[in-house]
Amino acid sequence: EYEEKTGRAHRPLSPKQNVRKNLDFEPLSTTALILEDRPANLPAKPAEEAQKHRQQYEEMVVQAKKRELKEAQKRKKQLEERCKLEDSIGNAVVTWNNEILPNWETMCCSRKVRELWWQGIPPSVRGKVWSLAIGNELNITHELYDICLARAKEKWRSRSTVGAEGECEDAGFSAADREASLELIKLDISRTFPNLCIFQQGGPYHDTLHSILGAYTCYRPDVGYVQGMSFIAAVLILNLDTADAFIAFSNLLNKPCQMAFFRVDHGLMLTYFAAFEVFFEENLPKLFAHFKKNNLTPDIYLIDWIFTLYSKSLPLDLACRVWDVFCRDGEEFLFRTALGILKLFEDILTKMDFIHIAQFLTKLPEDLPSEEFFTSIAAIQMQSRNKKWAQILAALQKDNREMEKGSPSLKH
Prior knowledge:
Elements: H1 2-6, H2 15-25, H3 30-35, H4 47-100, H5 104-107, H6 111-118, H7 123-134, H8 142-161, H9 175-190, H10 206-219, H11 229-237, H12 242-253, H13 256-262, H14 266-283, H15 285-293, H16 299-308, H17 316-329, H18 331-344, H19 346-349, H20 354-362, H21 370-378, E1 383-384, E2 387-388, H22 389-406, H23 408-411
Antiparallel strand pairs: 1-2
Helix pairs in contact: 7-17, 8-10, 9-10, 10-11, 10-12, 11-12, 14-15, 14-22, 17-18, 18-21
């Protein structure tokens, strides 16, 4: 059309010329499209258009520089935060090693130490602090661990060599106990922190985890192995030597809350759930009402959290920080953490139905921001009508005992 208007003769182009013409129209980039002159067979840009394109290009350059500056500032801030965190951890390590640990009995309950504790225990001293905080009321020694492990290995050997007919009760173990100490442990070890690949068959901590769980089934045949224990033992193995991990593991499982859950004491478990709901309603009345409306009971999400002490549900580094404060505050913090999770996701959960709530709480987001998470926990008040967690729990236990005594149907 342009050639007709300008009076230029219209001649068919050769294949080579046609290709060249197409190439002339092909912009190498957005910048080229704006800045480069048009091909010779097209009219030149008007001055206004050329000026407009120059302005657009300059704006693009300015925006690109802004993005680069923003990214550079972001990287700088991240580097500063990381350096600040490393300095903070380094200073904390010195404080823990030089001031707190040598004077544990006198300093562990001080306000300064409790505040430092809340910020997270440095990984290099975490195992020592956990051991001291958990204690050793059972008076387990390294020698006792060796004895229990030797017994466990003997049972594993005898099971592999003796046929099913020869499997009778042996040193307090029934066939069911043997099955629990072998098949369940073997199955669960392969499912413990699978992303780390250090507890699976052939991994560096596979045998260590197997040994601690096996030794515990010999130490406490009345409890045996229960699914979920492998995660607790694995976290301890990552922070303690093997024998010390076994000592901490055994004493930790001997705490009232853990023993109630691992021995499946239904009455006591229901009491814990009832106490939890008192503080749930106190702190999050709107979400509590939504859960009630959808018949979502605490056992649906709390059992998994309590059984593994959050090590299965939360990212490992965040779970260890929960363990830090759990070692400081005891079982109360497990339920406070649960309320912190519910508070953090309250807006999302109030819009969900039963199925989606259960699915969400079973598999929490993997990118939980640490500080935001602990800020949410800190906002939870563990006091209801001037009564603390221990008082509420004791009152509910007392009510249950009296009800059982007074009700023949419950008694039988």
